[in-house]
Design brief:
Elements lengths: L14 E6 L4 H10 L11 E7 L8 H14 L5 E3 L2 H7 L2 E4 L7 H10 L3 E4 L7 H14 L3 E3 L7 H4 L10 E9 L8 H4 L2 H11 L3 E8 L3 E8 L4 E7 L7 E6 L3 E3 L23 H11 L8 H19 L5 E2 H9 L1
Parallel strand pairs: 1-2, 1-4, 2-3, 4-5, 5-6, 7-10
Antiparallel strand pairs: 7-11, 8-9, 8-13, 9-10, 11-12
Length: 333
């Protein structure tokens, strides 16, 4: 098999997928989707065959509490638990890193990329911009396809706003969502990344500068794109919580859908349609594991992390505008 590729002979049999890390519920969710005997379309033709339950992160309660739960749950989908990363790599064609602790991802990704196994890394990609840059650089050096994304990107009500007939060309977007934090990770990397990726899903890349206003109620971030468009993120710390957006276009203005559901029609958000949840991103992962291109480029991913890091720096500078290019240049040194 060529580096990062899948042999054409494998087209007649399932692509074998391995999971590294079981302290994240998504590991179970994807195993359920890929190992469903009734799976059709893009979700057919894959099988999660093995998983390595990397040790929990002792300083992250979520990791400690959830590892035994998801380790027990995943075997219900006929996934074989293995004792090492080496054993995992011998058993599969492609890998998902599901460890909830982004601090571990660079170290975990290295042997997978060096082995030429196609790799998807669950959010957060890393706990620092430096590690995010290093992961993507290693993927480039080893010529191994690798990507990461929030599941929010492929929620129909979000990705469907980019070419919404009632909105037209997107001229601006205000995204809002929850902003819980984890002391071991940079503030926005832990959870806000989901809504910030929603902003990029709708606006596309090209942000040049970011400013941030922080209060006990909100993280309010404004990004200015190179073409003059403006996108904002409202990270909700207190009060009612919802994940959505308002999208401004050359044809109209519309609320976005809500997570898991479809696009609004004449301002009405559907809630009784098929709930997509993790299925949207699982379909993209399936295409990728079968040999397709990564659906999110390394450049856009690194821009998203530079956006968040620039917001952190703006916060330290009392709301000053911070250029993403400066942040990325510093991280690459």
């Amino acid at each position: 098999m060529c580096s990062g590729g899948l042999a054409s002979a494998q087209s007649a049999k399932p692509v074998r997928v391995g999971i590294l890390g079981l302290d994240n519920y998504q590991a179970v969710a994807y195993a359920q989707l890929f190992n469903d005997p009734k799976a059709v379309g893009d979700l057919a033709g894959l099988r999660v065959v093995s998983a390595f339950a990397a040790p929990a992160s002792a300083d992250i309660k979520e990791s400690v509490d959830n590892l035994p739960l998801w380790k027990k749950a995943i075997v219900e989908y006929k996934v074989n638990l293995v004792g090492s990363v080496d054993e995992l790599l011998r058993s599969c064609d492609a890998v998902m890193i599901m460890t909830v602790d982004g601090r571990k991802h660079l170290e975990q990704a290295a042997p997978i990329l060096k082995a030429g196994k196609r790799l998807y890394i669950g959010r957060p990609l890393a706990a620092s911009l430096g590690d995010a840059v290093a992961i993507m650089k290693l993927a480039e050096q080893t010529k191994t396809p690798c990507w990461t994304s929030s599941q929010h990107r492929f929620s129909p009500g979000f990705i469907g706003m980019r070419n919404h007939p009632e909105v037209g060309k997107v001229l601006g977007c205000d995204v809002f969502g929850g902003c819980p934090t984890e002391p071991t990770h940079a503030e926005l990397y832990w959870h806000a990344v989901h809504s910030i990726e929603t902003l990029y899903t709708i606006m596309g890349p090209g942000c040049e500068s970011v400013s941030c206003t922080s209060t006990p109620f909100v993280e309010s971030i404004t990004g200015v794109w190179a073409d003059g468009r403006v996108g904002t993120y409202r990270g909700i710390k207190k009060g009612a919580l919802k994940y959505s957006a308002t999208v401004f276009g050359d044809k109209g203005v519309s609320v976005a859908g809500i997570y898991g559901h479809g696009v609004p029609v004449k301002g009405i958000v559907p809630v009784n349609d098929k709930y997509m949840g993790y299925e949207g991103i699982a379909i993209e992962m399936a295409k990728f594991f079968k040999g397709g291109a990564a659906p999110v480029s390394a450049a856009e991913t690194l821009e998203i992390f530079a956006f968040m890091e620039a917001a952190h720096e703006s916060k330290r500078q009392k709301g000053a505008a911070v250029r993403l290019a400066d942040i990325l240049e510093k991280a690459r040194k």
